[in-house]
Specification:
Blueprint: E1 2-6, H1 10-21, E2 25-29, H2 33-40, H3 51-60, E3 64-67, H4 70-74, E4 79-82, H5 97-109, E5 115-118, H6 126-135, E6 143-146, H7 156-161, E7 166-169, H8 173-183, E8 193-196, H9 198-229, H10 233-241, H11 262-275, H12 281-293, H13 297-304, E9 313-317, H14 332-342, E10 346-350, H15 355-362, E11 367-368, H16 372-376, E12 381-384, H17 396-402, E13 407-410, H18 417-422, E14 426-428
Parallel strand pairs: 1-2, 1-4, 2-3, 4-5, 5-6, 7-8, 9-10, 9-12, 10-11, 12-13, 13-14
Helix pairs in contact: 1-3, 5-6, 9-11, 9-12, 11-12
The chain binds nicotinamide-adenine-dinucleotide.
Length: 437
Amino acid sequence: MKIAVVGTGYVGLVTGTCLAETGNHVVCVDINQEKVAQMQAGIVPIYEPHLDTLFHRNIKDGRLTFTTQLAEAIKDVAIIFLALPTPPGEDGSADLRYILGVAADLGHLLQDYKVVVDKSTVPVGTAEKVGAEISKHYKGEFDVVSNPEFLREGFAVDDFMKPDRVVIGTSSPRAKKVMEELYKPYVRQGNPILFMDEKSAELTKYAANAFLATKITFMNEVANLCELLGADVDAVRIGIGSDDRIGKRFLFPGIGYGGSCFPKDVQALAKSSSEVGYRFNLLESVMNVNEKQKTALLPKIKSYFGNDLKNRTFALWGLAFKPDTDDIREAPALYIVDALLKEGANVVAYDPEAMPNVQKQLGTSIEYAKDPYQACAGADALIIATEWGQFRTPDFALMGQNLKQKVVFDGRNLFDVEQMRQLGYHYASIGRTLVSG
Ligand SMILES: NC(=O)c1ccc[n+]([C@@H]2O[C@H](COP(=O)([O-])OP(=O)(O)OC[C@H]3O[C@@H](n4cnc5c(N)ncnc54)[C@H](O)[C@@H]3O)[C@@H](O)[C@H]2O)c1
């Protein structure tokens, strides 16, 4: 099939590349000329494990191309994917200007039947709005389908190639057939393609993200309680996770959820609810708790240093909102940096992939180290904000030598409490016994 993907960010580029991988011809469109030039030159503009192999293979085989020209891209295609940003607007609702802007452009450009697919995360009713926008100028046949994306950054290629499920919202038998054909190669293991109406598909994505954010937040609150009651959150986590009804995943406490999806999607769902007169109390609590949780290490740090962080230097491991991505949108690490700088402290950060993105945002207000141990050199303490695999079993001896004092504030519970005690650290984590050294 011939396909156009409009928007080549984390979702669009993965979608386009993975669709080309099964033999489709895909044109990726983006308004960011620099990004398109990079991709045309064979450079993957984001960090996403395994994407480069597929990207290069499909470019080489002539199935994956890039352009800034929407009109040229959609000429011969059967399907047009919209993988555009839906950032939070000022009132918390999803800002649809990118989606509706491209829909208006399509209204001027369409000349024959196409399936227009919303891959972005959009509020209930958006498929209708996209259809109405296109119809303003195009009177021919087309269908708008809601096909929310569930990929996780860091696992995006695998998630796209072997999805747990594909959700497709459409009331058109013609579009249903096209989408079924397109996704067949991705569900050969038997995972379902779930067909439903457009509104239910749109809500499914928000409900999934809101549920996951709630699960994390619940566990963070249990962790906070553990600290006050003297219980161990790891034991509680395993204790409850062994129950199939609860499940083991998404129960790890930490310094809150971040990223480009959970915060904005929870906010947007709460806003959508209030617009129809329903107060989603649970989500309001989730947002409040998460906001506080992002800086949950701060009181521990301040208390250790006698409430005075001025001119203290902190090594910070991890800047990305989670491991295996260079995405720093709403990253808890950045909230910690902000709080530390406000207290007059210095920060020397290390992240395997996210430093260039942070540098663009924060410039020289913090220092960037070339490896985790250099970050620790002469620092008063180490703070861990992202659970990159390489931080899990560090060279504790080198870490201890480099730090001014053996003090670690761990927002991701990477190390064993007993081991840290034996190694002579002051070790504060989330929901577990404080090692005071
Ligand atoms: N990132 C994720 O993990 C993830 C997962 C599932 C769903 N989503 C949803 O998918 C959507 C896209 O997210 P993302 O993370 O890929 O965003 P992104 O910001 O990484 O990428 C969006 C891209 O769209 C481009 N763009 C903007 N306006 C354009 C236009 N008029 N024409 C062509 N290109 C244009 C931007 O230049 C950018 O490259 C959002 O709705 C998001 O909520 C994201």
